[in-house]
Model the fold of this input.
Amino acid sequence: MSDSSANKDKAGNGESGNGMTIHLKIWRQARSAAQGRFVDYTVSGIQQEMSLLEMLDILNEDLVRKGEEAVEFDSDCREGICGTCGMVVSGVAHGKHAGTTTCEIRMRQYKDGDTITIEPFRAGPFPIIKDLVVDREAFDRIQRKGGFVSTNVGSAPDGNAILVSKLAADDAMDSATCIGCGACVAACPNASASLFVSAKISQLAWLPQGGPERGRRALSMIAQMDTEGFGDCSNHGECEAVCPKQISIQNIARMRREYVKAAWTGADKARNTGGD
Ligand code: SF4
Ligand code: FES
Done:
């Protein structure tokens, strides 16, 4: 076997030793109010070990070398933690693989000559800033309405001072894994933020520490969600399907229970020591 054939097709994806050639259709939009459009690009030398974002880095280096404007996109941790890298990849928020963020997409899932379409998250409350970057401050404003515990508890308490059942701790932790990426909004036909808001409400409702502000938290975060212009939950389940942290839509049912309890009994009475 010659050297070149040994290098060829390591992953059965047609990649030669020089890497794959990938065609891209990328949404370019100069600013929020400007008309956007898809622009075609071709990048070469893409190795299967690279991430999708590394491929965009290579594209941007090519563009800058040619004196053209780089494609703007958000990223930070590049390991599925921070939630900044939201994009719609070939029609699916964060791409087709369940439980992964855009930055976790590896090029080994593509073949030489494939075409990938990349566009921003699209939702009224997430206006496009430029190209693939959207403004997700609406999430921050919702979070500021009550997604925290305001009690000053001093330094870290003893781990056993307030007992939390294993079930409640596990459920709180499952809800707390939401990274605020916004894919749930982008995937929902009604641009609902219900999965995000319900995860933030649930993570504290499960714990005794979240009890004192429980009712007020549900009412004010949901009111802010409405103010920001997010739609109501339409029960499509697309949010859960694209969520990179696989947050369950059971959180939405819990959010509704929290809201009804607080609305009927008064925000300050709807408190307890955590759990359902
Ligand atoms: S619920 Fe999932 S999709 Fe929505 S913001 Fe949180 S991590 Fe992202
Ligand atoms: S860059 Fe942080 S989750 Fe993707």
Remarks:
- The first strand starts at residue 20 and ends at 28.
